[in-house]
Amino acid sequence: MSLVNLANVCSHLQNCVMAKLPLAKIPYTRLHLQIALGLYNEGFISSVQRGSINGPDIKQVEVTPDNVSTRRLWLGLKYKDNKPVLSHIHLISKPNRRVHLTNDELVHFAAGNRVRFVKPMKPDEVVFVRASNGDVLNLYEAVKKQLTGELLCRVSLGDKSLTGKKYSIAGFDMDETIITTQSGTRFGHGAWDWCIKYPEVVSRLKELETIHSNDDTIKVIAIFTNQGAINNTKRSKSLSGFTHKISSIIKKLSTLTSLPIVIYAATRDPQANKNVLAKKAAKIARKPDIGMFQQLLNDINATKEDVSYQDSFFCGDAAGRPGDFSECDIGIAKKIGVKFYTPEQYFLDVKEK
After folding, report:
1. Strand duo 217-231 + 261-268: pairing
2. How far is residue 200's CA from residue 316's CA, in Å, rounded to a whole number?
3. CATH number assigned to the domain covering 165-348
4. Which UniProt keywords apply (predicted)?
């Protein structure tokens, strides 16, 4: 019955925000309390209070088997400019169709892929997972802890500016920044031919949860990579291999941090040689142009004004130094308007002129 009750809670919360009520009351259960605290921690609601049917407690009342049926959780709903912060909350698992995922499947889902019949997760969404021990946590925490679990519900905001928070983006190039070839050659020989470039990548990604931004920002790790050798067609072997490669990369990186991780790749469009518009679009997508950054903003339903530029940065090896093949990484950092680091600066603390 827990999912039946949770379905009613989801519908009730949406009805309350549509009616612009200041508070919403829901039945007191362990599952509902965990979901409510999750919503509070993610910034969707302003408060969680214990209470009775009539309202929040003035004095704390202990919950017992005798009074639990009359106990309620009172949730403070958040609004800005008369618009609700919590826009959508929907069940994923249903009473007659539970969605239990392995850790590999959770990683695949967190990477923005469809899993079974569940639609891909967007970067701006929060998905709550019930682990095998009964704890409820967000998807990225479950991935980081290498748990298995049941997908409970997904929550999103109608307008990200309603939270009053901005995005801090930790941007990285991929090749020779986050990863290098396992074979030692300049270009990889297949989806398997990669490894983490520096041991320090592990610790620095973990640190991103607490540094480079403050508590008033929503943190996202975004990897922007030019992949001109990848042919972007349905039956392309290079595209298929690259898709497997980035899936394994995200799986590895997701064990290092609970922050959302997205990868954008500017591939080769065969139509670019025939179609002027396709050629222009392909150029804009590639660094140093900011097409991949703009696509990220579009995917998280944000504008340029929603980014905290002082808390964001981009790190890449194409910095225009002697011996560098390009200056596209420092170029995109300048066009976006964020700090730039070389991999040596960011991961190894090497001071460069």
Report:
1. parallel
2. 15
3. 3.40.50.1000
4. Ribonucleoprotein, Ribosomal protein
Q: Residue ranges of the domains in the chain?
A: 2-161, 165-348
DSSP string, 242-270: HHHHHHHHHHHHHTT-SS-EEEEEEEE-G
Of 245, 188, 197, 256, nearest in space to 221 by CA: 256
Residues facing residue 315 across a β-bridge: 172, 341
pLDDT digit string (tens) for 121-140? 876 788 999 998 889 999 98
Strand partners of residue 212: none
Q: How far is CA 179 from CA 188, 202, 223, in A?
A: 11, 11, 11
- DSSP per-residue string spanning 289-331: S-HHHHHHHHHTT--GGGB-GGG-EEE-S-SS-TT-S--HHHH
The answer to whether 205 and 258 are in contact (CB under 8 A) is: no
> 331: burial class by Cβ within 10 Å (0-12, 13-18, 19+)?
buried
- What is the DSSP-derived secondary structure letter of residue 11? H
CATH topology of domain 2-161: Ribosomal Protein S8; Chain: A, domain 1 (3.30.1370)
pLDDT in tens, 289-301: 999 999 998 887 7
